[in-house]
Amino acid sequence: MDGANESWVLRFFGVQEAEVCRAASGLAGRYGLTQVESRSQGPETLLALTAPAPALHKAEGRLRRTFRAGLYGTGEQTLADCAARALVKRDRLLACGDKLALELLAPRLEGRDGVDRVFDFGAGSCEDPDAAARIEALALRRDKKGTAGPVARELDRLRATLKVTKADLAAGALSMEERTLVAVAGRKGSWFYLAGAGENPALWLLDILRRAAEGRRQSPEVCFVPRGKRPGPLWEAQAAPAESAAPGEDETPESSASTETSLPAPQAHRRRWPVRLAFVLGVVALAGLAAALRVTDGDLTALPSLVQSMMEGSQLPAHSGAALI
């Protein structure tokens, strides 16, 4: 006998509401969900499911496998709760490269369980005059020609923060005209996003931090720059004041919709058919060479005259391999 119906709320960030609803609707008949409702505000989507508890457990598990990084919490859990939990659970030390990032993160992470062990709240980074001076000096040395754009300069500052503080992750934010650049640097590279005037940059920064701490795939709107590289001219152009706002590792892709983004498409996987065709042609060539050697008894110089005689209608040689030609 099934138990009484319960209602659960699942929280998603950086996933299209239509994709969440489509996935949930597909589970309604399979797991006996009696009600599926959703509400979206910007990049965040809340999904309410009603069904007996066993069915809710199964549906939640299925949705977590579908949206491995996008489904960040349940019930009353906030993005700040889950970001702090990820930092503490994975023991990822966090530092802030500038005061704006500290203003976005400190009020939201303060008081979370165990967060004091992994976040210095600026005491060893941007709020420490000596550390801040060393960070700034190191960042300036990275831009020897002084021609870097605002995105590259911010990423240089975050990489310098990692080196000075020995942290695992460095968070930064840069206020622009009607937009805010939020970024996180790790050991393998940096992630950043340009939040528009109507968006909450703190939420984007928390989500990037959460995914980076857990080693999850980032939202499609977030750009990644590998360590030692600089952002391309397209991003610097989007960060320029005269331009309009633009949208911004060990996981299976979340869904087909996760690749729908206005960012430049990632480089496609190399196609394998040229390699396979070359292999087949090579096998055919070797077979032809073997047949020619057999027909001519190893004397390939006699092959042209043999072919000519065959074309003129002369009788095939008595060699058993001639039939192959």
User: So what's the CATH class of the largest domain?
Assistant: Alpha Beta
- Beta-strand residue percentage: 15-25%
Radius of gyration: 30 Å
Sheet with most strands: strand arrangement? 5-6-7-8-9
CATH topology grouping of the largest domain: Maf protein
CATH H-level name of the largest domain... which superfamily? Answer: CinA-like
Q: Assign an overall shape.
A: flat
In short:
The chain has helices at 17-31, 53-66, 79-90, 99-109, 129-142, 150-165, 201-214, 233-239, 273-295, 303-311; strands spanning 5-13, 35-41, 44-52, 71-74, 94-96, 169-176, 179-185, 189-195, 223-226. With 325 residues, it is of the alpha+beta class. The strands form two sheets. A five-stranded mixed β-sheet has the order 5-6-7-8-9. Strands 2-3-1-4 form a four-stranded antiparallel β-sheet, covered by helices on one side.
Would you mind describing this structure in some detail?
The structure is a single chain. This protein has three domains: 5-77, Alpha-Beta Plaits (2-Layer Sandwich), CATH 3.30.70; 80-249, CinA-like (Maf protein, Alpha-Beta Complex), CATH 3.90.950; 273-323, no CATH class. Helix content is 42%, strand content 18%. It is built from ten helices and nine strands. The protein has helices spanning 17-31, 53-66, 79-90, 99-109, 129-142, 150-165, 201-214, 233-239, 273-295, 303-311; strands spanning 5-13, 35-41, 44-52, 71-74, 94-96, 169-176, 179-185, 189-195, 223-226. The strands form two sheets. A five-stranded mixed beta sheet has the order 5-6-7-8-9. Helix 1 (17-31) packs across helix 2, helix 3 runs parallel beside helix 7 (201-214) and helix 5 (129-142) packs across helix 6 (150-165). The longest helix is centred in the last third of the chain and has 23 residues, at 273-295. The protein is flat and about 95 Å long.
